Amino acid sequence: MRAKTTVSEIDTQIELLKEKRESMVAKANERFARAALKAGLAELDIPDAELNTAFAEIAARFRDGEKRATGASA
Predict the structure, then answer these.
(1) Is 67 within 8 Å of 73 (Cβ atoms)?
(2) How confident is the model over 4-45, as pLDDT tens digits?
(3) Which of 62, 18, 58 is nearest to 41 (CA)?
(4) Are residues 36 and 42 in contact, defined by beta-carbon separation less than 8 angstroms?
(5) How far apart are CA 74 and CA 63, in angstroms?
(6) If pLDDT is split at 50, 70 and 90, which confidence band does 57 have?
(7) Calculated CA dihedral for residues 36, 40, 43, 47, nearest 10 degrees
(8) How far apart (Å, rounded) are the C-alpha atoms in residues 64 and 74?
(9) How far apart are CA 26 and CA 61, in angstroms?
(10) 40 or 67, which is more confident?
(11) Residue 50: which of 58, 61, 38, 39 has the closest Cα?
(12) CA 33, 37, 43 angle in degrees (round to 5)?
């Protein structure tokens, strides 16, 4: 029979997951920053609203590609 999990054990797991999440977000940020630098985006004076729109369009394009690749329908 499995031992009961204590609240402190759950709290420890939550903290570990938070640290893992922060690490994953930081790695993703670094990846996209490198791509933006390579593309020359850092040299352009683009308003944040326009960048957000452009990135949302790119994300939608790739999400649509995932749906087609997995056979999911919209």
Answers:
(1) yes
(2) 889 999 999 999 999 999 999 999 999 999 999 999 988 999
(3) 58
(4) yes
(5) 11
(6) very high
(7) -50
(8) 9
(9) 24
(10) 40
(11) 58
(12) 125
